[in-house]
Design a protein that fits this description.
Strand order of the largest sheet: 3-2-1-4-5
Strand content: 15-25%
Helix content: 40-55%
Number of strands: 5
Oligomer: single chain
Number of helices: 6
Bound molecules: coenzyme A
Largest sheet: 5 strands, parallel
Order of helices and strands: EHEHEHEHEHH
């Protein structure tokens, strides 16, 4: 069985992430969507909230597993016999950064490949930080996040 993993902070999940999930799950038997617990950026959403948004947006997908992980991604990949790490590439900066990360991950977990999926052009400008900033000022984020995530952002910023 070919196992892929799509790691991220998902704070929150965007349509850009969902597109990568759809495409990554089509090239493996099982895709693990792994939300990182130990992220350096201070998250807006708790880990439970981030998982809930992923679960809600992926209900129709049958070959995924949604988990959290702590510590090094490479260790988690070895533990779960992951064949490949899927990363979305939006622009040149992502390539430079992800290239370095993939080399380090290969040193740490040589059995696990990293594959890069090019984001669709309509998603290439999306980032979770930008989505949060626009939502915090009441801007319309309908075209960049799932409806459920939009609702959660509205609730978060109105409380
Ligand atoms: N569509 C939309 N947005 C995307 C995207 C896509 N396809 N791909 C990435 N992004 C956004 C993310 O939302 C995030 O936005 P933000 O910075 O505004 O929050 C940004 O691009 C960075 O994404 P990514 O590179 O995936 O980082 P991340 O913070 O979501 O997750 C981990 C990073 C968790 C995968 C990484 O830090 C990790 O593996 N940590 C574990 C510790 C470890 O092993 N460290 C050693 C690595 S060598």
């Amino acid at each position: 069985m070919r196992i892929g993993i799509y790691p991220g902070s998902f704070d929150p999940l965007t349509l850009g992430h969902l597109d990568i999930i759809e495409r990554a799950r089509n090239i493996c038997d099982k895709l693990i969507i792994a939300a990182a617990l130990n992220i350096s950026k201070k998250p807006l959403f708790s880990i439970e909230e981030r998982l809930e948004m992923i679960r809600h947006s992926c209900t129709s997908m049958n070959n995924i597993e949604i988990v959290t992980f702590n510590g090094l991604l490479a260790d988690f990949c070895k533990e779960r016999n992951v064949n490949f790490i899927a990363k979305g590439i939006r622009n040149r900066m992502d390539i430079d950064y992800e290239y370095a990360v993939s080399i380090m991950n290969r040193k740490l977990a040589p059995e696990t490949e990293t594959i890069f999926l090019l984001s669709r052009s309509e998603h290439s400008f999306i980032s979770s930080s930008m989505v949060k900033e626009v939502a915090s000022y009441g801007g319309d984020i309908t075209s960049v996040v799932p409806q459920f995530v939009k609702q959660k952002l509205i609730e978060k910023f109105s409380s």
